[in-house]
Design goal:
single chain; about 250 residues; alpha/beta; Rossmann fold; seven-stranded mixed beta sheet; 7 strands
């Protein structure tokens, strides 16, 4: 019998530590599937900092290294400059990338560093106790905003993709979601596009994944997916925010 499905060689065959309903596993899977399909598993180096994905190296079957909280872009910059023939990526959450590591990611984009960042935006600090993140929505409750985030007190949620897309060194920025099969297929296309642009040497690339955190949101997994569709996407619209200029692609 001809198999209709084969598990990607990009993922190790071990259980993950993620909570039920967490979409980190989906993001891991599609990134590794793309690398396998591109024939780059043995030519890739990933960088994971502190957060729920701190043990991503146990699941992603590529060379990986750990960075201090928020510092993955600095580490990836050094790796890509020393190994210009490698495919390099960072895998970062919103507390990591949009808070303690804001300066790192901004200046990596300013320099046009030729690596790809996969930004997991679940609107909350997952590993450290469910605190409000820079991306937490107005009115959304957390352990440090128990009455909901307030604009006058906390400011508006940061749209990192739009901010980074405004920087000349950023070549490609897209926001995707992991709430449905159709959106997951689009997310996989975005991952491939980011790696292809990286390999062309056109500059910094970023894919933002709108993701869930059922545990810290206090929602069942299905309701968490609905929250992404009905609330998160309204503030963080999906789509390509920046593409390389045609003359750069020629």
């Amino acid at each position: 019998m001809k198999p209709i499905f084969e598990y990607t060689k990009g993922m190790t065959d071990v259980p993950t530590h993620y909570c039920p309903g967490c979409t980190h596993g989906i993001a891991h899977r599609i990134i590794m599937e793309v690398l396998e399909e591109m024939g780059e598993l043995g030519n890739t180096i990933g960088v994971a900092p502190i957060g729920c994905s701190v043990t991503a190296h146990e699941y992603m079957n590529v060379d990986m290294c750990e960075a201090a909280h928020g510092r993955a872009p600095a580490v990836a910059s050094g790796i890509r400059r020393v190994h210009p023939d490698k495919v390099v990526f960072t895998y970062q959450g919103d507390g990591d990338l949009a808070s303690i590591g804001t300066g790192e990611i901004v200046h990596a984009a300013v320099r046009g560093e030729k690596f790809s960042t996969f930004f997991i935006n679940n609107g909350i600090y997952g590993m450290t106790g469910g605190q409000m993140a820079p991306t937490t929505l107005i009115g959304q409750k957390s352990t440090t905003s128990q009455d909901g985030r307030k604009k006058e007190l906390n400011g508006m949620p940061v749209k990192m993709s739009e901010m980074l897309a405004s920087i000349d060194g950023a070549a490609y920025v897209e926001r995707v979601a992991l709430d449905s099969p159709a959106h997951i297929r689009q997310a996989k296309k975005a991952v491939r596009r980011a790696f292809e642009i990286q390999k062309k040497g056109l500059g910094f690339t970023l894919v933002e994944f709108l993701s869930t955190c059922p545990t810290n949101w206090g929602l069942p997994p299905v309701k968490a997916l609905e929250w992404v569709r009905n609330n998160v996407m309204a503030y963080y619209p999906l789509g390509v925010i920046k593409e390389p200029k045609e003359e750069e692609q020629a």
